[in-house]
Amino acid sequence: MAGPILITGAGSGFGKEVALRLARAGHRVIAGVEIIAQVSAVRAEARERGVELRVEKLDVTDAGDRENAWTWEVDVLLNNAGVSEGGASVDIPEERLRRQFEVNVIGPVLLTQGIARRMAARRSGRIVFMSSVAGLTVDPFTGAYAASKHAVEAFADALDQELAEFGVTVATINPGPFLTGFNDTMFETWKEWRDDPADRLHDYAQLAFPHEQYDPEPVYERTVQVLLGETQRYRNLLPTEMEPQVREQTDAQWNRRLNDGSRPALVQKAHTIGPGTPVRP
């Protein structure tokens, strides 16, 4: 039995479901949630499922919360907390761009520093980053989010090399487009911008996430496997059928040429696809 397992961003989405599944299997889990209101909500859901789950407030951008988490006994850390800011790179307001990196990169890395030191001291531990396919490739209108996940990939790779001699392993999970609501709300963040809409290059009311989306079950299953050490893979890209496509996209960058001035296919698709479009069997 692995544990204790700390999962950040466990107030919703992948993090919450994985925390509940691990707890149901009898593992000791600490579900870190961003805001205090989520503590009681996740505890209530755990009771409904009949599982024992420790829930703690852990906003990864809050120094006090991070320092508190450093005192917990943690054998496995899943850096899952994250936000997604949609919009063209020239339109995203400064404060929204900074928050994208504070939540997805700076906060998790600082949290990891304190926990990794304790793992290194006892010569054991596992650190897992919930990255994304967007950490390997980039779509239009997701530049800020993809940039943050590319940064996560860099930190994870460096940590894997730096912690190896101390008995600590590192892995990444790279979900593609899964139908959890996360991708669709990314294309609604513009509604909270405090800017002049007339200055924007794009009309975001006309855009949607430019991919059909998959059922998230494979992410739950693989994440549990990675956290429990049931796979030796460093990178875990899901769904697995996307792996050849992603490899092709990354390899194609070596022969990429300047754009010809026409609208790219994915930009056009963002104009024509509807929100929450599922992948058809």
Keywords, please?
seven-stranded parallel beta sheet; alpha/beta; 281 residues; 7 strands; 12% strand; 42% helix
What does the model show?
It is a single chain. This protein is of the alpha/beta class and 281 residues long. Helices cover 42% and strands 12% of the residues. It contains nine helices and seven strands; from the N terminus they run E-H-E-H-E-H-E-H-E-H-E-H-H-E-H-H. It has a seven-stranded parallel beta sheet with strand order 3-2-1-4-5-6-7, sandwiched between helices. Helix 1 links the parallel strand 1 (5-7) and strand 2. Helix 3 (63-69) packs parallel to helix 4 (94-122). The protein is globular, with a radius of gyration of 19 Å.
Overall form? globular
The largest pleated sheet is described as: 7 strands, parallel
Q: Order of helices and strands, N to C?
A: EHEHEHEHEHEHHEHH
Strand order of the largest sheet: 3-2-1-4-5-6-7
Class derived from helix and strand content: alpha/beta
Beta-strand share of residues: 5-15%
Question: Count of DSSP E strands?
Answer: 7
Low-confidence stretches: none
Radius of gyration: 19 Å
Q: Residue share in helices?
A: 40-55%
SS element count, helices: 9
Residue-averaged pLDDT, rounded?
97
The separation of the N and C termini measures 36 Å
